[in-house]
Amino acid sequence: MLLTITTTHTPASDLSYLLHKHPAKAQQVELSGGIAHVFYTEVTEEKCTAALLLDIDPVGLVRKNSGPSGNDFALEQYVNDRPYVASSFMSAAIAKAFSTAMNGRCKDKPELVTVPMPFDITIAVLPVRGGEKVLQELFSPLGYTIDAERHALDPAFPSWGESRYFTVRLRNTITLQQLLSHLYILIPVCDNDKHYWVGQAEVEKLLEKGKDWLPAHPANEFITYRYLKNQKGLANQALEILMKDETIEPEETIEPVEPKIRVHDLRLQTVKDELLKTDAKRIADLGCGEGKLLRYLLPEKQFEYILGMDVSYRSIEIVKDKLKIDRMPPKQQERIQLIQGALTYRDKRLEGFDAAVLVEVIEHLDPPRLSALEKVVFQYAKPKTVIITTPNAEYNVKFANFEEGQMRHADHRFEWTRSEFATWGNKVAEENAYTVIYKPLGEEDPETGALSQMAIFTSNTGINAER
Asked: Each residue of 245-298: pLDDT tens digit?
C-alpha cells in the first residue's frame, strides 16, 4: 500500500519541512493494523518525492477484529485486499505520520503552510466503487487533473472483466494541508468502507477536515454518506452542520431607540445570575456562538465544568482563540470543553449536566425542527435546569425604520410574542415534567414588554442521567 507525494516547488526540499520528516532518515509510525514507513525517494532543489508505505499485518487484523466486516464470502476476514490497497488504513496513516502538516503547522518554516505548491500524487492501488466516474466527481471539483489506470481482475483471464482497482495519479497546485485533508477524506470514500467502527467521532473528523472545502463541493452529500458508511442519522447530522452558514453575523442588527445598555451583555449577565441561584455545577452552553457567555461563566467557581457547543466549527475555533484556552492553566483547561454538534440530533455528550442554556438560539431553527430540539434537550439530555432566551416580537415596533413582518436578524426563522413563547414553553414543560417561569430581559415597556424574553425550566424529577 503505497502513496507518493512529489513537488517541483522551488526549492522542492521545502516539502520535508512541511511534512516534518527528515529526508535523510527513514521513519516508522505504528498503526492499529501494522506499521507506516515514511521515506524519500528523491530530494533535490528541483524535485522532492516523499513516500508513505503501509505494512499491514493480515493476521493481526483478524486477531484484533479490525478487518473487513462485509459478507461477500465466508473467508473474507482471512482473504481480502486490505493489506494491499489504499483504504481507511491509509487515512489513519496520513493523520498520524503527517499530523503537523494536516493541522497547518510548520515549526521551522511557518510561512510555507499557506503557500500553494505543484503536487503530483500517486496512489499505487485504490479501490473505487463506482469506477472512474466517481474519481472524477470527487477530485475534479477540487481542481485535480486525474489519470487513472484500471486493472483487470486477472490479466490471464481477460473475459473476467475489469476490477474496481485503479492506479491513480493526481496533480494540483494547492497547499499541503489542503492536499492531505482531501486524501484523508476521499480515499475511504472511494473505497466505501472503513476498518473501524463509525460513530459520532467520525462526524467530527469529517467536519473538521472538510470544513474549508466540503460545504461547497457539489458531491458533498455523496461524500458525507460514504464517509459515514451510509448511516443515515450520522450523515444527516453532518449535512445539517455543513449546510449551515458558518459566517455568523452580529445578533443585534437593528438597534432599539436610545439603548441604555448593550442588550446582549444584559442577557448574558442575567443568565449567569439565574444559574448562580441554582446549585448547578455542570453547565452546557448550547449554541455558544463565539463564546461570550462562556467568558461570563468561567470566573465563577460554582461552575466546575462548562461545555460549549455550536453548529459552526469556525465559531468553535474563534472561542478557542478568544478565550486562549491553550494558555490556560491545566486545571482551568479541565473545566471547559468545546464541541461541534447540532441540537436537532441526540448527542450523549449532552447528558449529565445540571443546567443547559440556549441564548438566542431557538429562533434560528425552522419551526418544524423545534420538536427535535425539544427531544434532544428535555427528553435525552434532561438537565435539572434549562434557560432559554429569545427575542420578543412585540418590542419590534420600537425599532427605528422597522417594517412590518421584518425580523431582527436575517437568519431568524421566527420571532415570538410573549404569549406565543409562553404557549410553547408551557407545552414543553407539561410534556417533559418541568415547571417553567418567564422573565423579561431588559427594561419592560407597559405595552410591548421587554426587548427579549427568558424562560427558566426546572425539572420535577431532577437529573435523568448518570454523571
From this structure: 443 444 444 444 444 446 678 889 999 999 999 999 999 999 999 899 999 999
φ, ψ for residue 269, nearest 5 deg? -65, -40
Which residue in this structure is represented by grid cell 494536516?
102
> Three-class SS of residue 18?
helix
289 in Cβ contact with 267 (< 8 Å) = no
Is the peptide bond between 330 and the residue preceding it cis, with omega within 30 degrees of 0?
Answer: no
Find, among 467, 203, 465, the residue nearest to 342 by Cα: 203
Dihedral sign for Cα 100, 104, 109, 112, please: positive
User: Which CATH number applies to 263-459?
Assistant: 3.40.50.150
What is the 3 state secondary structure string of 134-165? HHHHHHHHHCCEEEEEEEECCCCCHHHCEEEE
Q: Which three cell numbers stand for residue 93?
A: 496513516
Cell of 421: 413563547
On the CB side of 417, how many CA atoms lie within 13 Å of its CA? 8
> Contact 209/181 with Cβ under 8 angstroms?
yes
Instruction: Assign 3-state DSSP to the chain and report helix, strand, coil percentages, each to 5.
Output: 35, 25, 40
Q: What's the sign of the alpha-carbon dihedral 35, 36, 42, 43?
A: negative
Amino acid at 434: Y
- What distances in angstroms separate CA 238 from CA 91, 120, 198, 219, 221, one per listed residue? 19, 31, 13, 14, 9
Shortest CA distance to 280 belongs to which of 352, 334, 377, 360?
352
Contacts of 116 (CB under 8 A, 6+ apart): 173, 174, 175
- Count Cβ neighbours within 10 Å for each residue of 419-445 and write b for 16 or more, e otherwise: eebeebbeebbeebebebeeebbbeee
Longest dimension (CA), the chain: 89
Tens digits of per-residue pLDDT, 74-109?
A: 445 555 666 677 778 899 899 989 999 998 999 889
Q: What is the DSSP letter of 445?
A: B
Answer whether 280's CB lies under 8 Å from 307's CB: no
Tens of pLDDT, residues 352-374: 999 999 999 999 998 988 999 99
Identity of the amino acid at 72: D
Domain formed by 2-196, architecture: 2-Layer Sandwich (3.30)
Closest CA relative to residue 104, chosen from 212, 224, 188, 12: 212
Q: Name the DSSP letter for residue 381.
A: I
Q: Residue ranges per domain, the chain?
A: 2-196, 263-459
Residues 6+ apart with CB under 8 A from 332: 298
